[in-house]
TrEMBL record:
Residue ranges, annotated region (Disordered): 1-23
Transmembrane segments: none
Record feature DNA-binding region, as residue ranges: 45-64
Record InterPro entries: Homeodomain-like_sf, HTH-type_TetR-like_transc_reg, HTH_TetR, Tet_transcr_reg_TetR-rel_C_sf
Keyword DNA-binding recorded: yes
Pfam families found in the cross-reference section: TetR_N (PF00440)
Protein's UniProt name: TetR/AcrR family transcriptional regulator
Keywords: DNA-binding
Domain HTH tetR-type residue range list: 22-82
GO molecular function: DNA-binding transcription factor activity; transcription cis-regulatory region binding
Amino acid sequence: MSGRNPAPRRSYGGRSAEERRAERRGRLLAAGLELFGTRGYTATSIERLCATASVSTRNFYEEFTGREELLTTLHRTVNDRAARAFATAYTEAAKADLPTRVHNAVHAFVSVTATDPRWARIAFVEVGPTLDRYSQWENAIRTLIQDAVTRNEAPPRDYTLTVIAITGALTALIHHWSTQNQTIPTDQITTELTTLIVKALTPTP
């Protein structure tokens, strides 16, 4: 039995349905970044998101189950980018001393999360109930500390509380910058965090 040839997918304006859908999704992500990153998650309705993105409510629900999934997508995007930048910078400075490795990694983290106040707010302020903004950074700091111990730059001991303290400082400083004082130079944030981390790992004479 011969089958029918599938009907060709329609294109409008030279764009396929997939391309148009990807474009709509991109506009929704951009609208989420702008509105969640300025007005805030609780102050932003789906209707406002759709109006800003110039899409219908039906189109919205084709891409996301609700506002929280959109926020989660943006949150993971910025934190994944920051984590990759942190890890890459630390690895590239593998032959350097501890302060240099830490500085480069922290600078990469700050450059991603604190360059745009909207991304900083989404990463560390507008966090939904199912999001964990700490675990990823706890793992990164724990890896950094273990490397320092292996190199005999830090003494072997239980660093559980140190990891929590450093992670808290890391996120709190970016939170403060994004919500209270964006006039603080990001290089100053990098320096403060680098000093804090190195002092926490370096034995007191």
